[in-house]
Amino acid sequence: MKKQGILTAWLLFVLLAVGSCTSRSDKNGPKKVAVIVSTLNNPWFVVLAETAAAEAKALGYEAKIFDSQNNTSLEADHFENAIVSGFNAILLNPTDSDGSIVNVMKAKEAGIPVFCMDREVNSSSVATSQILSDNYSGCVALGVNFVQALNKRGNYVEILGLVGDNNTWNRSKGFHSVVDRYPGLKMVAQQSADFDRNKALEVLESILQAHPDIDAVFCGNDAMAMGAYQALVAAGKQKEVGVYGFDGADDVMNSIRDRKIKATGLQSPQTMAKTAAQYADEYFNGKRDFAQRVPVAVELVTQQNISDYQTPARL
């Protein structure tokens, strides 16, 4: 009986030891990085996700991409998966500035650092750091170009992104900080299309029925700009209505070259993704003092300066 008790105690010790080893990545193996993005239905976010994963792997870590499909509940499932599967860091592109806070908090409570990319959460105490495009300033520059192109007069439409995303409102506020100073410019409609190309097509088609005489469309991202342009082509108005986007996506950069889209704000998903992965690496090596918000500059790209830019590289 004594030997049996010793054997039972030994087996219990072994099971506990194995369990403790699997609760995080094996100390003798590479650490694991989860890349959780709002959606992979947009090529821009594909670049963000793949760049983050590639950089993490280049630094010697395992990496896996999770697609939240613009659904905060699905994002929550990904966080639970990352926590129980022993991931050591999360590189996050949030689905919602408010709704994602609770997910980031769960990771923090589990001792897992979270580095936000491109989109932020409305808290300065849950994420380890947030690497963000300077959306406001980028759209100030777009607003100046917009005013000049319309010669300070005309009717225009604004197509917003996701209403729960701070980027939507930072871009809109930056744009309006310039355009609203010119009474000759009138916004005849403002509607959300959730950063989605097909929704933007449908939204502008509907708006054109009520407001056929417009001079420009300002879109909160490039996917919506392409959808808006498609709607204008269907209405035979693509040559008389200027379209403005934001992101610097390949298709819009090419459309600017072809003199279809007027301008965009060029973000760098590669810069944000690589920075997030590098911050995770620094965290693993002992650093704990990170800036809460790290701005990344946005460049104005127009038909006048497009020759200065090559098509963004794809992985």
Automatic annotation (TrEMBL):
<feature type="domain" description="Periplasmic binding protein">
    <location>
        <begin position="33"/>
        <end position="287"/>
    </location>
</feature>
<dbReference type="InterPro" id="IPR028082">
    <property type="entry name" value="Peripla_BP_I"/>
</dbReference>
<keyword id="KW-0732">Signal</keyword>
<dbReference type="GO" id="GO:0030246">
    <property type="term" value="F:carbohydrate binding"/>
</dbReference>
<dbReference type="GO" id="GO:0030313">
    <property type="term" value="C:cell envelope"/>
</dbReference>
<dbReference type="InterPro" id="IPR025997">
    <property type="entry name" value="SBP_2_dom"/>
</dbReference>
<feature type="signal peptide">
    <location>
        <begin position="1"/>
        <end position="19"/>
    </location>
</feature>
<comment type="similarity">
    <text>Belongs to the bacterial solute-binding protein 2 family.</text>
</comment>
<dbReference type="Pfam" id="PF13407">
    <property type="entry name" value="Peripla_BP_4"/>
</dbReference>
<protein>
    <submittedName>
        <fullName>D-ribose ABC transporter substrate-binding protein</fullName>
    </submittedName>
</protein>
